Amino acid sequence: MGFGKVGTEVARRAKGLGMHVIAHDPYAPADRARAIGVELVTFDEAIATADFISLHMPLTPTTSKMLNDETFGKMKKGVRIVNVARGGVIDEEALVRALDSGIVAQAALDVFTKEPPSPESKLVQHENVIVTPHLGASTVEAQVCFTNHHNSKLFIVSCSFLHLIPIFG
C-alpha cells in the first residue's frame, strides 16, 4: 500500500525474491509500476488478495485507520502486516482483534498512534507482533555508513543494528 519512493523500492526487493507484487496507490503512475512488473490494483483487491501487506503512505484524513475491523474482515486469513509508514494508519485495537482471531498471522511495526507506545500495550505485548523503534536511519552508524556508501542501493541491517552492509554497489 503506497507506491511512492519507499513503496517502489520495497516492490523491487520483493520482485527480486520472486514474489508476485501488487500495489495500491491512487497517485502512482501505471507506467512506473509496469516498468518493474508490478500490477496496480484497487484498495479492496489489494487487501483481499495479499499475503503480505506493507504500508508506505503518509497519515492523512483518508489514510487514518485505513486498516480497521472492516478491512481486516476482507483480508485473507493469515495475512502478514508491515507498517513502517505512520502511526495511525492502522486501528491498533482492531489489529489486536485481527491477530487474536488469526486473520492477521503476524505484524511488524515501527510506528504507533501514540509514540512511544506503552510497554504494557496489548499490541506491543502480543506474541505475534514484532516491534522496533522508527529510527533506523537516525543512528550515528547509519549516517556514517550512508555517507560512506551513498551510491549503494540496498543495505542489510545487522541484528545488533550497529552495521549497515552494502549489498549492491
UniProtKB/TrEMBL annotation:
InterPro entries reported in the protein's UniProt record: D-isomer_DH_CS (IPR029753), D-isomer_DH_NAD-bd (IPR006140), NAD(P)-bd_dom_sf (IPR036291)
Domain of life (superkingdom): Eukaryota
GO molecular function per UniProt: NAD binding; phosphoglycerate dehydrogenase activity
Record-annotated D-isomer specific 2-hydroxyacid dehydrogenase NAD-binding domain positions: 1-136
Keyword ATP-binding found: no
Keyword GTP-binding carried by entry: no
Pfam families given in the database record: 2-Hacid_dh_C (PF02826)
Keywords annotated in UniProt: NAD, Oxidoreductase
UniProt xrefs under SUPFAM superfamilies: NAD(P)-binding Rossmann-fold domains
PANTHER family xrefs: D-3-PHOSPHOGLYCERATE DEHYDROGENASE 3, CHLOROPLASTIC (PTHR42938:SF5), FORMATE DEHYDROGENASE 1 (PTHR42938)
Protein family: Belongs to the D-isomer specific 2-hydroxyacid dehydrogenase family.
Protein name (database record): D-isomer specific 2-hydroxyacid dehydrogenase NAD-binding domain-containing protein
Taxonomic source organism: Linum tenue
